[in-house]
Description:
37% of the residues lie in helices and 14% in strands. By secondary structure, the chain is α/β, with parallel strands linked by helices. The longest helix has 15 residues, at 104-118. It starts with a strand and ends in a 6-residue tail after the last helix. Bound molecules: acetyl coenzyme *A and L-homoserine. Acetyl coenzyme *A binds at residues 43-45, 50-51, 213, 225, 228-229, 232-233, 236, 240, 314, 317-318.
Amino acid sequence: MNLPAGLVLESGATLAPVQIAYHTFGTLNPARDNVVWVCHALTANADVLSWWAGLFGPGDYFDPADWFIVCANILGSCYGSTGPLTSGDATAEPLYQQFPLVTIRDMVAAHEALRQELGLERIHTLIGGSLGGQQALEWAILRPTVFTNLVVLATNAQHSPWGIAFNEAQRLAIFADPTYHEGTPAGGQRGMKAARATALLSYRSYDAYGRTQAETDPDRLDGFRASSYQQHQGDKLVARFNAYSYVALSRTMDTHHVGRGRGSAALALAFIKARTLVISISSDVLFPPDEQLFLARHIPGATYAAMDSEYGHDGFLIETAQITQLLEKFYVPSLVH
Ligand SMILES: CC(=O)SCCNC(=O)CCNC(=O)[C@H](O)C(C)(C)COP(=O)(O)OP(=O)(O)OC[C@H]1O[C@@H](n2cnc3c(N)ncnc32)[C@H](O)[C@@H]1OP(=O)(O)O
Ligand SMILES: N[C@@H](CCO)C(=O)O
């Protein structure tokens, strides 16, 4: 979808033109009440069936045979929507480091424009984890009557000092790579590799590393498994992402505060009318369970569910069997459609 006039961002700057890439799966039913809208996290994309398999896909809880699933790539990303490498205007240069600050609310403005374009008056379920949960919360506050159900995982009402510090450490790694400042599509790759390796420490847990990366050779002095894992994960992101989007999206995450201009986070959450399920992960050090307890306390009538997992923050992507069980329990009373 194209917005030729673009969007006036929360900062006051105009981003124009704006393109929003999205995928839909399944079919909108005649009653138009089977829409599930997924807000994706930091480095994912609109193809939710590829990165949330086990929850979205044939035979999964959200089976495209039953549901009309919509997922839009977020502004600032590199998977089709307007971002630092796409000027949006074929004649202009990409903006690279000059890409403007996009807030979570700006991302939501893009989702809202797409919802209106698609003519979806009601969304049965709005779901997202992490940065996706931040968008979902903002949207449910902004348009309280649109969403029947809201499911947020491993997310928060306001990005924490700890989360911002992690993001800053990652940006420092990218800024220390001189190629980032050259402004080319491959700029900052070595920095982003280090940034992803740093981020991973906040996405997994001590126990997960202990289980998957333990050494079997007690005499080893170098070349540890945990080291090559960090290298591999950094390389894997470099192969599919770019440093300018990484910096832009981490800055977006830092801006997240549902209470901005609304008195407080608690007052803002009280606007939500959707029936809400808030899910936490016991080993999540980046978005710890206290943050989800806060959400559940302040969203009217919300249900809180704690997942026990050793996977840390990334548990929201990995623990699909547990999430399915929680959804089955959550939807039973209201049955569905
Ligand atoms: C275009 C696309 O790729 S779609 C985008 C995919 N990603 C997203 O959308 C973002 C959301 N997804 C994610 O963040 C992740 O995929 C997760 C959290 C769901 C799972 O993370 P993964 O990295 O797949 O799992 P895990 O931590 O177990 O690591 C497995 C990988 O590490 C490798 N690995 C494990 N131990 C080691 C080691 N000691 N040394 C080197 N490599 C290792 C494995 O071989 C495997 O590599 P592969 O992914 O290249 O096959
Ligand atoms: N590992 C995920 C989640 C971060 O919140 C990603 O790369 O998008």
